[in-house]
């Protein structure tokens, strides 16, 4: 008896719901589908399977912002049978229509022509910058604490606003790796009921340039060399350092990039900055100048440089996977949105800092970041292309109560962001793509063009009109219209110039350097030495050393030693500045939510492993069992094998056993196996421990696992703990995780 399609879907849903590693603990994230795949090809027709539990989709709004009431599934594929794009059912999609089995394909094969034509046009131009990205849906909740400075409704106390966030790297192509040293984008689309607000932020609070007219220059310098199209997604090459050493306003952004900020641990542990100064307007019409900040709940953490390099090869999707696995496992990423508030004075400065200069920050010690709301990402995209790839941001998408300033970089971006979408997304109607549709009513009088989805009524798309009854009508202040702040524009001659206050290119670079902890300074020295060491031209290395001499003598000397070059004298005296402790990532403690704990196990020694797994889940973290083989150990599923695991996947390691070399620990089969015949522990387990130790990660062991620490030579070093039981070892490791890394394992040589 043939089952009904609804019964098949119901069974799939139940299977997806019941899909757990075992009966006692939750499943680990990473399942590709919403139901387990059967061994044989399914043949009973049924409707599409439901989305995975953590997946979301754009609301089913009309192109003009109206709610439809339709479920999100209404935008997906429908029915049980294969059809053409027009809904005609098809019997075969494996064979072209031919003149006999051995004959030529016939031109009349409409199905082949539709299928191959669509395939030939599947790709759209990738973004020139920020091409490599990952996105997620979420909700923003206002605290109400911003009501004194802005009338923006989405910031009201308890107000919930749906959002879509896209994280990205800047320089690399879509196919590049996540963990390259680069600036990260942090763009948030707030679907407010007063119009869409796009906060297009970066994980670095300053930019390379002060004026948008230089944007093609910095990007052309950072992109691969045009003759060979290498190196990909890197700044460690001649053209980048040629530009920044000549165009010294870039030095501030560059030192941030050379710091650990350039290689974030994850998007979840990444700060965000609006870069520019914006103008807020409150209900009384009073204005303030502000800078926007995103503060992650888990703190700001980074990868070790070697760890980032390994990840780029072993798992180029490292950050994307981390984001989606965290959401699937219920460890929803959270940030607080905060603002630094400054008086809106004619000079537009604060504490001597020009607020319109995008290469400058205002230290938090001078202007505290005031929390105004919380962002939680809780749904992954259902379709990466439809949502993450087609989402389009624009700094001019502003709700009432938020306005721009005369920052020359911001002013140029107001033009550029619209302009780039016209080619990438096929015309001016890109706001009608579902992920870009506003959640406020739209009556814009914009008509026609490529991909017009709205079916406009009326005959008079102009103002004034009488044929459509005068509709649409202008809104006044009482209707909460967006009103440009009537800022006085100074009467001045037309010039191509910057104000004198933009000329200081080194004092804040020195401020950043002096604010770093000793271990962070070591990493900055290493980064400059590596990047400049990859350059070919000696003159470029020497020129950048002259820039570093203007920042700090120790920094310059240490990099010069690594390059084998003389230490130049500064051309300007190093500035007298006060350090800003808020700029350092080290020295505080943070929650361990969503951290990944690798647990090395052996078939014959599972004492305490199940209790540890339960405790890891209970602490809001994710345990991954690492064994010699896949399948099961005892009643527990194995997530990684010695062949597939690398230490970069784990925030900490726990050793429950000392596994002997497995049958596949053969150098001919796995290069990580090394000299497996000369050791008593599988050499890939020893490599896991050695790498985790080099990357300053916490390591714990109990039982037979303690012997691995001795054989690896790490026993008794900082951050390596032993205990009588697995739960005790986990507790010690969890305390170490609060500081993210065990940096005291490697004492710094610079103060």
UniProtKB/TrEMBL annotation:
Pfam families assigned: Catalase, Catalase-rel, Catalase_C
| Stored SMART domains | Catalase (SM01060)
Cite the residue spans of the region called Disordered. Answer: 17-71
- Any one GO MF annotation of this record: metal ion binding
A Gene Ontology biological process annotation?
A: hydrogen peroxide catabolic process
What this chain does, per the record? Decomposes hydrogen peroxide into water and oxygen; serves to protect cells from the toxic effects of hydrogen peroxide.
- List UniProt keywords, sorted A-Z: Heme, Hydrogen peroxide, Iron, Metal-binding, Oxidoreductase, Peroxidase
Query: Which GO cellular component terms are attached?
Result: cytosol
Cofactor(s) this protein requires: heme
* Reactions catalysed: 2 H2O2 = O2 + 2 H2O
Instruction: Write down the InterPro entries for this protein, in alphabetical order.
Output: Catalase, Catalase_AS, Catalase_clade2, Catalase_clade2_helical, Catalase_core, Catalase_haem_BS, Catalase_immune_responsive, Catalase_large_C
Q: Where does heme bind?
A: 127, 166, 215, 413, 417, 424
Give its E.C. classification number.
1.11.1.6
Q: Which residues form the Catalase core domain?
A: 83-471
Q: Which organism is it from?
A: Couchioplanes caeruleus subsp. caeruleus
Indicate the enzyme's highest-level EC class.
oxidoreductase
User: Which residues of this protein are catalytic?
Assistant: 130, 202
What protein am I looking at? Catalase
- Per UniProt, location of the 3'-histidyl-3-tyrosine (His-Tyr) cross-link in this chain: 394-417
What family name appears in the similarity comment?
A: Belongs to the catalase family. HPII subfamily.
């Amino acid at each position: 008896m043939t089952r009904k399609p609804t019964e098949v879907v119901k069974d799939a849903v139940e299977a997806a719901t019941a899909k757990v590693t075992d009966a006692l603990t939750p499943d680990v994230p990473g399942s590709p589908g919403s139901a387990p795949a059967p061994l044989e090809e399914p043949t009973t027709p049924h409707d599409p399977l439901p989305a995975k539990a953590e997946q979301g989709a754009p609301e089913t709004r009309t192109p003009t912002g109206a709610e439809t009431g339709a479920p999100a599934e209404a935008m997906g594929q429908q029915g049980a049978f294969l059809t053409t794009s027009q809904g005609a059912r098809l019997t075969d999609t494996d064979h072209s229509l031919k003149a006999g089995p051995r004959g030529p394909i016939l031109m009349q094969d409409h199905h082949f022509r539709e299928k191959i034509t669509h395939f030939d046009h599947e790709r759209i131009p990738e973004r020139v910058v920020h091409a490599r990205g990952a996105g997620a849906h979420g909700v923003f909740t206002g605290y109400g604490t911003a009501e004194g400075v802005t009338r923006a409704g989405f910031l009201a106390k308890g107000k919930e606003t749906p959002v879509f966030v896209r994280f990205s790297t800047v320089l690399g192509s879509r196919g590049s790796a996540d963990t390259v040293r680069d600036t990260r984008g942090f763009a948030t689309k707030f679907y407010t009921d007063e119009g869409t607000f796009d906060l297009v932020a970066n994980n670095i609070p300053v930019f390379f340039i002060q004026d948008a007219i230089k944007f093609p220059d910095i990007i052309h310098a950072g992109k691969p060399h045009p003759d060979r199209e290498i190196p990909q997604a890197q700044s460690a090459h001649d053209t980048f350092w040629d530009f920044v050493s000549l165009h010294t306003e870039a030095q501030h952004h560059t030192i941030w990039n050379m710091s650990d900020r350039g290689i974030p641990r994850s998007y979840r542990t990444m700060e965000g900055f609006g870069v520019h100064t914006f103008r807020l307007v409150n209900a009384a019409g009073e204005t303030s100048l502000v800078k926007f900040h995103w503060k992650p709940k888990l703190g700001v953490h980074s990868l070790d440089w070697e760890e980032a390099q390994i990840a780029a090869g072993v798992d180029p999707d490292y950050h994307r996977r981390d984001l989606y696995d965290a959401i699937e496992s219920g460890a929803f990423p959270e940030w607080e949105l905060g603002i630094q508030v400054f008086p809106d004075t004619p000079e537009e400065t604060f504490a001597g800092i020009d607020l319109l200069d995008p290469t400058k920050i205002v230290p938090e010690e001078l202007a505290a970041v005031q929390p105004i709301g919380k962002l939680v990402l809780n749904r992954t995209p259902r379709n990466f292309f439809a949502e993450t790839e087609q989402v389009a941001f624009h700094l001019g998408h502003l709700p009432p109560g938020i306005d721009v300033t005369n920052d020359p970089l911001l002013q140029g971006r107001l033009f550029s962001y619209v302009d780039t979408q016209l080619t990438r997304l096929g015309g001016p109607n890109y706001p009608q793509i579902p992920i870009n549709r506003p959640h406020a009513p739209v009556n814009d009088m914009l008509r026609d063009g490529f991909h017009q989805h709205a079916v406009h009524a009326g005959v008079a798309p102009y103002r004034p009109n009488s044929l459509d009854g005068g509709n649409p009508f202008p809104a006044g202040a009482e209707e909460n219209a967006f009103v440009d702040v009537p800022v006085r524009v100074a009467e001045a001659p037309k010039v191509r110039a910057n104000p004198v206050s933009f000329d200081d290119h080194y004092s804040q670079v020195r401020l950043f350097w002096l604010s770093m902890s000793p271990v962070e300074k070591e990493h900055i020295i290493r980064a400059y030495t590596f990047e400049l060491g990859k350059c070919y031209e000696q003159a470029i290395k020497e020129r950048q050393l002259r820039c570093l001499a203007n920042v700090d003598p120790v920094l310059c000397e240490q990099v010069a030693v690594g390059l084998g070059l003389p230490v130049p004298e500064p051309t300007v005296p190093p500035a007298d500045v006060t350090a800003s402790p808020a700029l350092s990532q080290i020295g505080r403690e943070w929650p361990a939510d969503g951290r990944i704990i690798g647990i090395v196990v052996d078939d014959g020694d599972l004492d305490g492993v199940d209790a540890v797994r339960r405790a890891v889940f209970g602490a809001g973290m994710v345990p991954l069992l690492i064994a010699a083989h896949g399948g099961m150990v005892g009643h527990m599923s194995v997530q990684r094998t010695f062949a597939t695991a690398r230490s970069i996947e784990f925030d900490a390691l726990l050793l429950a056993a000392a596994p002997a070399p497995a049958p596949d620990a053969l150098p001919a089969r796995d290069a990580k196996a090394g000299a497996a015949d000369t050791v008593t522990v599988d050499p890939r387990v020893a490599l896991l421990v050695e790498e985790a130790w080099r990357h300053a990660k916490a390591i714990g062991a109990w039982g037979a696992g303690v012997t691995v620490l001795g054989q690896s030579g790490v026993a008794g070093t900082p951050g390596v703990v032993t205990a009588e039981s697995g739960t005790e070892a986990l507790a010690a490791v969890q305390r170490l995780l609060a500081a993210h890394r065990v940096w005291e394992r490697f004492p710094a040589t610079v103060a």
